[in-house]
């Protein structure tokens, strides 16, 4: 048996059906059944029994499943560990980034890095904030950009930039007359906001809950652009940060600060403290910090 056989067995156990497992695995039912039969022959036992509700694990099958789960998990962990060793030796930058941060740095930052260091292998993947954190915590990638506060015992954290989160409204909306707002001002207002996979969603929802109400979120999205569009049409309110608002600036909208606490979009660069950095990651960190300094000085326009 091999890891592929164990994955087939685990999929059958999860689905309770050879035919359902075959569809997920892109195999024929005959091929899936053959693997199962070979496993049962090798182990000298029946792994499943069939009843009206489908295929159920036998007692031996349950024990085999425990070992199969561990073996598959160990296999993929070893693959990740070896990948990190190879990346360190070969000067690889494997970047996981939350949406919005590339808008902060500008795409030219990555283009310039690849041109400056053609010998460094560079990979880039972009996700919402929370999937980036989950993937990075699971040993995916070797450097990450994300939003929020992070455990500095686990990660080396390099702050990039922090922006206040402000209320975004149409100039015709009654709240547009205020110089500042509190979270209570959001009560009963239809809101467009980034989804629960983003830090900004949880910050706003938690503040509303602490104030004793649930926000009237009528639509969640994967980016700021739809929020801006709906506010422009005066169909609701939203929240945004300055640099994205400036980048997408249109007439008829207004950003209003919150006056009742800290509302921040804090972008950070992360590496793992328990993982030796390769030369490529060190060069990338230095490049990003220098690039941001050029943006601040006006040498580079965002």
Automatic annotation (TrEMBL):
<dbReference type="InterPro" id="IPR036390">
    <property type="entry name" value="WH_DNA-bd_sf"/>
</dbReference>
<dbReference type="Pfam" id="PF00126">
    <property type="entry name" value="HTH_1"/>
</dbReference>
<dbReference type="InterPro" id="IPR005119">
    <property type="entry name" value="LysR_subst-bd"/>
</dbReference>
<dbReference type="GO" id="GO:0005829">
    <property type="term" value="C:cytosol"/>
</dbReference>
<comment type="similarity">
    <text>Belongs to the LysR transcriptional regulatory family.</text>
</comment>
<protein>
    <submittedName>
        <fullName>LysR family transcriptional regulator</fullName>
    </submittedName>
</protein>
<dbReference type="GO" id="GO:0003700">
    <property type="term" value="F:DNA-binding transcription factor activity"/>
</dbReference>
<dbReference type="InterPro" id="IPR050950">
    <property type="entry name" value="HTH-type_LysR_regulators"/>
</dbReference>
<keyword id="KW-0805">Transcription regulation</keyword>
<dbReference type="InterPro" id="IPR036388">
    <property type="entry name" value="WH-like_DNA-bd_sf"/>
</dbReference>
<dbReference type="Pfam" id="PF03466">
    <property type="entry name" value="LysR_substrate"/>
</dbReference>
<keyword id="KW-0238">DNA-binding</keyword>
<dbReference type="InterPro" id="IPR000847">
    <property type="entry name" value="LysR_HTH_N"/>
</dbReference>
<dbReference type="GO" id="GO:0003677">
    <property type="term" value="F:DNA binding"/>
</dbReference>
<feature type="domain" description="HTH lysR-type">
    <location>
        <begin position="1"/>
        <end position="58"/>
    </location>
</feature>
<keyword id="KW-0804">Transcription</keyword>
